[in-house]
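Lab notes, practical 5.
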Amino acid sequence: MLVVLLLIVLTTASSGCTFPLPGVPVPIPGGPATSYPSDASVPDLSGRPEQFTPEQRIGISQAVTATWSPLRTGDQATDAQSLLQAILKTPGFADAGIGADGSVWARYADGLPITWMLAYNDRPESGTEPSSKPSLMVPPAPKLAALPDRPDAAVWEFPSQYAGGVGAAVNDLLSAAKYRPRILGNQVAELQTAVQNLGVLFAETHGGVSRTILGTPEYALATNEPWKAGPEHLPKFKLYRQGLLVPAVVAPLIGEATYYWGVNTSFVAKYWTFAADALVFISSCGVYASTEGRAFVAAIQGASPGRSATVLGWDGSVAIAYGSRTAKRFFARVLGDNSIDQEDVPRRPFTYKQVYDWMAKNAEIQMLPGTATLTITYGPAGDGQLVPSILRVNLLRPGKDAKVEHAGEEYLEIAGSFGPDPGADLRSVTLAGQPLKVYDNGWSPERIVAKIPAGQAITAIGGDLVVTVRDHPSNVVPITHWTGSVKMIQTVPGSRGEAQLTLDCRLQASGEVHFFRTTPDATPRVSFVAPIDFPDGCHWRLSGSVGGCTISGSGRLDTPIQSGNLVTMGKRALNTDNDGHYPVQAFVIAPASKNLAIGKMTCPGSTSNYPAMPFYTGSYTNAEPLTFPSSMFVTNAQLSCRMLPDAPCTEKWTLNPTIGIPTKKTQA
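Output from the prediction step:
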């Protein structure tokens, strides 16, 4: 089933928004005493005839602003009170009040609403960082939701002078992840038609609470369309009369107020739709600070059929510099972009919950202690993501490596976050650009099992592995293929000479050796098993003397031999211990029941040749582990070993990667 991401980010034009303020009783001449939030004491004025022309309404609101502007101090609570008093002194209003989110609302004498969205001017950059890390409760997300089922997206950013800011950045991030974002002009007519079954909607604008003509408080978001009179604006005044638009006075605490149309909860419920599993990011002032704001969130969730949205939003006032930075960081980390907070080992994409929890731990979701905190509500399907993400990959073979369900076959086991199976037509796994078959029931939200193509050995594969869901690619994880050799020389000393066994083997191996993080804040590490084959067998040679007799002979060991964890010249594996050192599993010559080589022994004074001393498997120890440098390949690794008591042994490995080498851009 297709999935959608809804992303709405709302902040203030030259600032953020407002501190929450308590409801303030306001006696209005000619109208009832009201407080905000209120109950049924606020009358329904829809029956009153319209008393003012659009020009008159604009004139009345401008008179309020003219009275209030000289009184502004920059203190939000004080300025909200002085604005309220300016409204009370201006003829033409029926009632007014201060909203729980700090906005100031009023209704004209004929019932039509208007709201003043008080806005912070941006604070200095140093003032937007919290002084300490808050302790936050993190909501649970028990399941992993599907990815958005449509790539269509929209970016809504207010005001226009911020073009090229966070909206442009989010647009580019979504485009890189194979979404199709569209930059909205933020006009009312466009918002009636463009927000339909979207995958992503990003909006950065003002927010506040107003009242409809019925007296109902509703949360609203400011569009980028000025509130003006004139015939071309009559359709908007009609929507205004129907309670679907609100005149929004964007009133910075410092600077000139401007007049824009705002879309409210009723507008959203009537015109907007989103696909299932949407993500909604509302970075306006206080969408989580009031009952009305939460009703706005509920309207968005209700517009997503089947599985509703995950919603993020601020529970207080947020300055645009902080809100924009937080939004950009969230999307960059969800999408695996590393242009922010660059590190030597770049981060892969993570789920919404993983990123949110990480940002909470690092105090990146609270503007200042006691002000605005980013809040998240997961949809009923649980946690979600914008793109699939590969954590790590195991290469597994028949025998002791392979699971019973796929015995006799070589396959990849891919761990990560992929969402529920969207169906074979909507997902793929590719290695070096070639598709791999996903086993029946081999796809789960956190594990994929894919078959190695027929005719290929698992020790000979390599290249970039990518998981794609609904055309959205995951991070790239390279499967590295090595070729090389191993040479073992064992010397058996004696009272009259010494014998020597030399073993030469050509080898090939494949493994996934990139660094990975389990969570965004985890230390990158590596852990893998690399299957190894010796395609030509191993060539052995005996030389030296024992007791005055000459030992000679050579041959080839063709049969792969395995004995528990002791693997010989056949298929075997390198195992890691996560700290850069790679102890090799015990490398033995042959099990005790077999001779490796029967050469010939020629003794002085004898006309007969005797079988050479058999070399049996003895105890084996690694004096030194193989050490992989950060570039993840072995060159000239030298080990000491002991095959027989008092028999010195050296083992030299040379491995060179030929394909799939991790690079600095490989994400962990």
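Observations recorded by the TA: The two ends are 29 Å apart (CA to CA). The chain has a mean pLDDT of 74.
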